[in-house]
Design a protein that fits this description.
Low-confidence stretches of chain B: none
Structural class of chain B: mainly beta
Order of helices and strands of chain B: EEEEEEEEEEE
Radius of gyration of chain B: 13 Å
Largest interface: A-B, 21 and 22 residues
Mean pLDDT of chain A: 93
Strand content of chain B: over 45%
Oligomer: heterodimer
Order of helices and strands of chain A: EEEEEEEEEEE
Number of strands of chain B: 11
Radius of gyration of chain A: 14 Å
Largest sheet of chain B: 7 strands, mixed
Helix content of chain A: under 10%
């Protein structure tokens, strides 16, 4: 089955700096890679995702890159703000194989702290 | 648009008592449904998932069970809670394109 590793486990950045979180996955059949943001005491919320037919996707200050050959993908947050402080989870899944339907495999999470 | 409702939001239960958490999804048909658990400061652990009425797959052996009596209803239960059952329980739904959406969560404290 799929195994996703996420680094770093904690990340402290100064407001205005960039933050980068990296994930690697093991199953070459994985083709969908979402990122979730979880604020303290709240549910994880999807903030951006990428499918295997593209290498990069941007949405304002956040971007995700995918390297299928190396089996890794990254989340980039530019011009960080205090409200970016949260736990971020990466995940991977193959939507094509029925035995993995719905079993989105999550990384262990990265606690991001943005200091003013 | 699709919405997911989960309740109760918080509960405090004694060890050995039963548990029932309920989740319903609106605005979609035949969703995949999931129960996740998150211990304090930890990651997301998939407990159960269901691709249809009466079809439940368990990911982790434990004293919890799940049922799907209706297409858009998913219930998590226990006959006797353990201290280790404390955590943040999240219901979620998806269709087969992979996107997963979480309910607001139920925080369970077992004393």
């Amino acid at each position: 089955g799929e195994n996703v590793e996420q680094h770093p486990s904690t990340l402290s950045v100064q407001e205005g700096d960039s933050a980068v979180i990296k994930c690697t996955y093991s199953d070459s059949a994985s083709n969908y890679f979402p990122w979730y943001k979880q604020e303290l005491g709240k549910r994880p919320q999807l903030i951006i995702d990428i499918r295997s037919n593209v290498g990069e996707k941007k949405d304002q200050r956040i971007a995700v890159t995918l390297n299928k050959t190396a089996k890794h993908f990254s989340l980039h947050i530019t011009e960080t703000q205090p409200e970016d402080s949260a736990v971020y989870f990466c995940a991977a899944i193959s939507t094509m194989t029925t035995d993995s339907w719905g079993k989105l495999q999550f990384g262990a999470g990265t606690q991001v702290v943005v200091t003013p | 648009s699709q919405t997911i409702h989960q309740w109760p939001a918080t509960l405090v239960q004694p060890v050995g008592s039963p548990l029932s958490l309920e989740c319903t999804v609106e605005g979609t048909s035949n969703p995949n449904l999931y129960w996740y658990r998150q211990a304090a400061g930890r990651g997301l652990q998939l407990l159960f998932y269901s691709i249809g009425i009466g079809q439940i797959s368990s990911e982790v052996p434990q004293n919890l069970s799940a049922s799907r009596p209706q297409d858009r209803q998913f219930i998590l239960s226990s006959k006797k809670l353990l201290l280790s059952d404390s955590g943040f329980y999240l219901c979620a739904w998806s269709v087969n394109d992979g996107e997963l959406f979480f309910g607001e969560g139920s925080r369970l404290t077992v004393l």
